[in-house]
Design a protein that fits this description.
The chain is an alpha/beta fold and 256 residues long. It is built from 7 helices and 10 strands. The strands form 2 sheets. The chain has a 6-stranded mixed beta sheet with strand order 5-4-6-7-10-9. A 4-stranded antiparallel beta sheet has the order 1-2-3-8, with no helix packed on it. It binds zinc ion. The site of zinc ion has 8 residues, from loops.
């Protein structure tokens, strides 16, 4: 089998039962080192759960990300008016919280109804910032899936995924109970992915980012100190941007 990211040959590592019924082979790439399942044919079933399922951390993750991303974007001086896309937005909770903080955030998700952001989807082709949190390991064809994201020409592409560092078949991130994690990247694979397109790769607190220019070094302590200041500031008038969004939705409706 060829690697679905770099197309190099792979070697067999082990087999595991996914979703309690599919015996699936795992392969490691001989070039980029990434671990991957055989071509995933079970995804329709894996995404037919109709809820968060085993993802009990989804809400807390969204809160953490909204607080830390607000601080990171503030510290690097990102212009809030620039268009941002949360790709693989799930229910849209993170993207809604970023709109509540005044960012020009939109959402998309091929597998979900984007409940909290259903009125904030946009098919524009260029985005200044894309976030894709807990998305990369779900990509059935990472070579094409990443190419589609880079084709939107973001200056910043933030993402999270647990890196593969030679773990064994007992690695919890394989997530055999959900069958949704099908590709596991090495650091080297991600660096090659970005550098092939002229992007730098950096780790900022708990997220990683592909950026066109080198970002300032930010410590987790600095990010979270700023996050708490911004949270206190936000809570003084927490519905300000939700009200602005409501007014713009109502006026757009009355125009049609
Ligand atoms: Zn590879």
């Amino acid at each position: 089998m060829r690697c679905r990211l770099c197309e190099a040959p792979t070697c067999y590592r082990w087999s595991l039962r996914l979703l309690g019924c599919h015996d699936v082979k795992y392969f490691e790439c001989r070039s980029c080192g990434s671990l991957q399942t055989e071509a995933p044919y079970w995804l329709t079933k894996a995404y037919s759960i109709g809820g968060a399922g085993f993802d009990t951390g989804a809400v807390q993750r969204s809160i953490n990300l909204a607080l830390s991303m607000h601080a990171i974007l503030d510290l690097i001086g990102f212009d809030k008016r620039l268009p941002c896309l949360d790709f693989g937005a799930g229910a849209g909770l993170y993207a809604r919280m970023m709109r509540d903080r005044g960012y020009n955030y939109w959402a998309s998700d091929p597998y979900n109804s984007i409940y909290f952001m259903d009125r904030f989807t946009d098919d524009r082709t260029r985005w200044s910032l894309i976030s894709a949190f807990e998305v990369a390991e779900h990509m059935p064809n990472p070579r094409c899936n990443w190419a589609e994201l880079f084709a939107k020409e973001p200056d910043l592409l933030f993402f999270t995924t647990d890196l593969y560092r030679g773990h064994g078949a007992d690695w919890p991130y394989l997530s055999t109970e959900t069958g949704q994690h099908v590709f596991f990247y090495t650091e080297q694979a991600l660096m090659s992915l970005g550098s092939a397109r002229g992007y730098h790769l950096a780790a900022v607190d708990a997220v990683r980012v592909f950026s066109r220019s080198v970002l300032p070094d930010l410590s987790s302590a600095e990010i979270w100190r700023r996050a708490m200041e911004l949270f206190a500031e936000h809570q003084r008038d927490p519905f300000r941007h939700a009200v602005i969004d409501l007014e713009s939705l109502k006026s757009a409706k009355s125009d049609t």
